[in-house]
Design brief:
alpha+beta, about 170 residues, 11 strands, 3-stranded antiparallel β-sheet
């Protein structure tokens, strides 16, 4: 071979890897493989994605209230949750949420245990927890009047609590 000088020693030609190099490569590959495997085996990924979807549905209710200049909200009875316009109770006031086949979403279908809650948004997007006379939101969220929603995975194993920020409706 031109340009390459082979060493020769007691055992003939010496080309290849040392045992230390081979062991070092195997150790590094093992560490990288373990890190990748731990990311692939995330048992809570589905739960976190469902929590994110519920938060986005609440944000959607707020955006619809501001867009249409009407009261919109989300209600949960512990078994289902749904988007509504004006009042939560008549089924005719329910509206379909983005990506939903029905006007109600079953908690058992998405693997989450829901608490019972109601949140209303006025035409300015402010969050309320009660609707008063003539469909006017009359009990706004405040520092003394908060709404915290706790979602549990089903089967049990994880729990996430979040609150809706008074005045702005921001959901962290």
């Amino acid at each position: 071979m031109a340009g390459r000088k082979e060493k020769s020693g007691r055992y003939g030609s010496v080309c290849g890897f040392t045992l230390i190099e081979v062991v070092a490569v195997i150790v590094v590959m093992g560490l990288v493989g373990a890190a990748a495997a731990s990311r692939l085996v995330d048992t809570q990924a589905d739960f976190r994605s469902q929590v994110s979807i519920i938060k986005n549905h609440i944000r959607y209710a707020q955006s619809m209230a501001m867009k249409e200049g009407a009261v919109y909200g989300i209600r949960s009875n512990g078994t289902y949750y749904w988007l509504f316009k004006d009042q939560p109770t008549p089924a005719s006031n329910r509206r379909a949420l983005p990506g939903a086949a029905d006007t109600r979403i079953a908690a058992s279908d998405i693997g989450i245990t829901l608490p019972t809650f109601r949140v209303f948004f006025d035409p300015n997007g402010r969050p309320y927890i009660r609707l008063g006379v003539a469909g006017q939101a009359d009990r706004p969220l405040s520092s003394s009047n908060t709404l915290e929603i706790t979602l549990d995975s089903n089967p049990a194993g994880a729990s996430v609590a979040f609150s809706i920020t008074p005045e702005t409706g921001y959901i962290p």
